[in-house]
Design goal:
The chain is mostly beta strands. The chain is 5% helix and 42% strand. The protein has two domains: 6-88, Immunoglobulins (Immunoglobulin-like); 95-244, Immunoglobulins (Immunoglobulin-like). Strands 1, 2, 3, 6, 7 and 8 form a six-stranded antiparallel beta sheet that branches. It is globular. The two termini are 36 Å apart. Pfam families: C1-set, V-set. This is Ig-like domain-containing protein. It comes from Xenopus tropicalis.
Length: 246
């Protein structure tokens, strides 16, 4: 919990199953007995962790019906404040596939006409369908407008998903680092890019350049190796692939 102390509040867990109403599971306060929702088994065990200032839920004897999105909520100032949710999927390990990641840079036309720079982050051929995409600017969480499109299931029973973020073109011109972060059960991946010091609108496209963009770098928290990237210049009126993981 950020901005509060878990021991000062009543905390609850809810579950949302696709196509159904959200379900209250359990509420709990430190040094008190948990209160369960109607029909909820006591194998859902809430715990308050004062040292880490966290509220934890353990599911015992996991069943297939336990799949869904789980939300933590805190009662504060006469209303519930919900977390962003965690997807839980019951599966066998063999169907897990790591996302293949691509970061697409802004259009020069968009930057010139609208003074905005939009980046696309694409995750391809991953499984299971439980993925979170985040944006950072200069290693800080982005506060700019972003949107994550719904995941698409492929013919091979894997998933593709795309997210975008838009920032002022002036930030990109100034050399801000834009990072896309993929959080998946196979690990966390990063792709980062930034413009050269020379403003992008002054760059002249050449066959051997990438229009003022430095190579994106790909990092992972599950493998310390640096993944290769590909940079390819296209026309000045199109989006440019900045990098992709092998």
């Amino acid at each position: 919990m950020r901005g509060g102390v878990v021991t000062h509040h009543v905390l609850s867990w809810y579950r949302q199953i696709e196509g159904k109403e959200i379900q209250f599971l359990v509420s709990h306060r430190e040094n008190s007995s948990p209160t369960y929702g109607s029909g909820v088994a006591e194998r859902f065990i809430p715990e308050v962790e004062p040292l880490s200032n966290a509220f934890k839920l353990t599911i015992g004897n996991v069943e297939n019906s336990d799949e869904g999105t789980y939300y933590c909520a805190v009662w504060f100032s006469y209303k519930y404040i919900f977390g962003e949710g965690t997807v839980v999927r019951v599966q066998v390990f063999k169907d897990t596939q790591r996302p293949q990641m691509t970061l697409l840079g802004p259009s020069l036309v968009e930057m010139k006409l609208y003074r905005s720079a939009t980046f696309l982050c694409h995750a391809a051929r991953y499984s299971p369908n439980a993925l979170r995409i985040k944006w950072h600017l200069n290693n800080q969480s982005s506060q700019h407008r972003s949107y994550t499109y719904p995941a698409i299931q492929t013919s091979s029973n894997t998933f593709d998903q795309t997210a975008e973020v838009s920032i002022p073109a002036a930030l990109w011109d100034q050399g801000v680092e834009v990072t896309c972060i993929l959080e998946h059960e196979t690990g966390v991946q990063h792709l980062t890019t930034r413009a050269n010091n020379k403003k992008q609108r002054d760059c002249k496209p050449e066959r051997s350049t990438h229009d003022g963009m430095k190579h994106a770098r790909n990092e992972t928290e599950v493998n310390p190796a640096i993944f290769g990237v590909a940079v390819r210049a296209m026309g000045p009126d199109t989006e440019k692939p900045i990098g992709r993981s092998n």
